[in-house]
């Protein structure tokens, strides 16, 4: 029996960086068409409302191209309908040409949520859904607050979205099940409309079988991961189950797919995974992987490079956890700390905030990884990146707080 090929850690790392758009020249002018191509390359861009420096989706795109501007994303989504909002592992903007494959998710969500709703709500919840859907059909675009609710960002209780006002919950349900779409954003609040009035007809009409969507989801995930386990493939879009992804891999093992072993950054036993076996995407095509730009870049905590924290630790030897929900006294680093990517390495993390009232991008703390020093050259790269962030956010100046250079415990 032939032993699986061993993929060295650096190759696996560089492959993932390339597939995630982080080896592209970050200074070349990004057109709207180029932005759509970049998002299709990534697969999706996660949305998040926290704006400590800038919202996550904008930071994800800016990390890959410094000429990206906020209005470009809004144009593609709201005017061109080239993107739609829905769920992967979390809320995200997704290329509209992928929409037909979300129909499987919608069907599964509807069956699951209807069953759960019977436990959440008393009475005739179907009539609430019908009433809200009819209101949108008759009146057009709507925000949750226009249906008699408070600000949509504030739930009625401390529970999840099932504890919101019934009509707001209905909006969320209808969106998660594909009946409504997010046609625009007002600030960060969703503006809902009928899906058929929002997305291109070609994408609405296209139909794929369950097997075809499972195949697309697994194939498209592996293309964007480069090399991955079946669990990582399932988690990428969160469209298929781990069992479906495992069966897909096993059915193609030794034919379309090659089983390999990936070296971990910290050593130890290599991890079994899969990659494509063909000459265009398989191992033989990796010899020409581009070298990532040497510049230092700030990453959003929700950047797809680091979204899977365990994978990040295996590939980069970098342990990262977001501490937003950790009590202040128990935080190791800070409320919202950003990883730092330098070339192909994650070298540290930075705690900074855009103090909008003062016009300052304030650096509160910098922690470098063990054996990483703040040399003169690295400090210059840090200052260059902070200047790029300053211009992107519209801050007037960069300010370093007292004792900003920290020592990790």
pLDDT averaged residue by residue = 92
What is the first-to-last residue Cα distance?
47 Å
Gyration radius, rounded: 22 Å
Low-confidence segments:
149-158
Strand content: 15-25%
> Number of DSSP helices?
13
Shape: globular
Number of separate strands: 13
Please provide the ordered H/E string of secondary-structure elements: EHHEHHEEHHHEEHHHHEEEHEEEHE
Q: Helical percent range?
A: 25-40%
Strand order of the largest sheet: 9-10-11-12-13
Protein structure class: alpha+beta
Largest sheet: 5 strands, mixed
Task: Describe the fold and architecture.
By secondary structure, the chain is of the alpha+beta class. The protein has 13 helices and 13 strands. It has helices at residues 9-19, 32-42, 56-64, 70-79, 99-120, 125-139, 166-176, 201-205, 210-225, 230-237, 242-252, 309-316, 376-393; strands at 5-7, 45-46, 83-87, 91-95, 180-186, 189-194, 257-262, 271-276, 296-298, 337-342, 345-355, 360-368, 397-400. Strands 9-10-11-12-13 form a 5-stranded mixed β-sheet, covered by helices on one side. Strands 1-7-8 form a 3-stranded mixed β-sheet. Helix 9 crosses helix 10.
What can be said about this structure in brief?
This protein is α+β, with helices and mostly antiparallel strands and 409 residues long. Helix content is 38%, strand content 18%.
Q: How are the SSEs placed, and which strands pair?
A:
Layout: E1 5-7, H1 9-19, H2 32-42, E2 45-46, H3 56-64, H4 70-79, E3 83-87, E4 91-95, H5 99-120, H6 125-139, H7 166-176, E5 180-186, E6 189-194, H8 201-205, H9 210-225, H10 230-237, H11 242-252, E7 257-262, E8 271-276, E9 296-298, H12 309-316, E10 337-342, E11 345-355, E12 360-368, H13 376-393, E13 397-400
Parallel strand pairs: 1-7, 12-13
Antiparallel strand pairs: 2-4, 3-4, 5-6, 7-8, 9-10, 10-11, 11-12
Helix pairs in contact: 6-7, 9-10, 10-11
